[in-house]
Amino acid sequence: MARWRTFFVTLGRAPAAPWWGIAAVACALAVASIVLTHLLRLAPCHLCILQRFLFLALAVLASGVALSGARFRLLYRVMAIGTVLTALFGMGVAGYQSLLQWHPESFTCGGAELSPLERFVEWLASLSETLFLPTGFCSDPGLVLFGLSLANWAFLAYAGIAAVGIWALRRAQAPLAR
């Protein structure tokens, strides 16, 4: 038991550990969204697909931060800040979708013309329909777990990722200030 405790304490002190954690969580969430869509025959909307893409982007960015390490400080900072900004953008997308689900009569998703984000999702669908084809409506909550829709859970996940990313960035800059 003491070995495992020592392992996790040592791992927690490693500068790359939070970034690997973010990458693992983001990848797991992206895979979960794909699996749930197919197993439960969910109909993801444009915003759902965008959030799926953002989780994949977070996994790539956080892995890049973890791999860049201290040797490439500029690359580390740019990718770390990019990770945090992507998580904050994901919070905005998930928050907007949550608002659409809570007040479908007051807000609309989409219009006569596709927005730039919807066009981006359509482009992703042209690359891989299995992963990125939107077939549902943004105001439909779909699957609800413990009273929260998947968009609500995604908002919480993005908030957690952003918080860990900010903490890891501050922790990495602390030795520079001394």
From TrEMBL:
It holds the Pfam family DsbB. This is Disulfide bond formation protein DsbB. Keywords: Cell membrane, Membrane, Transmembrane, Transmembrane helix. PROSITE patterns: PROKAR_LIPOPROTEIN (PS51257). The chain crosses the membrane at residues 20-43, 49-67, 74-96, 143-169. GO terms for biological process: protein folding. SUPFAM superfamilies: DsbB-like. It is found in: Cell membrane. Signal peptide: none annotated. One of its GO terms (cellular component) is plasma membrane. PANTHER family: DISULFIDE BOND FORMATION PROTEIN B. GO terms for molecular function: protein-disulfide reductase activity. It comes from the Bacteria. Coiled coil: none annotated. It is a multi-pass membrane protein. Its main location: membrane. The lineage of its organism: Bacteria, Pseudomonadati, Pseudomonadota, Hydrogenophilia, Hydrogenophilales. The keyword Secreted does not apply. It comes from Hydrogenophilus thermoluteolus (Pseudomonas hydrogenothermophila).
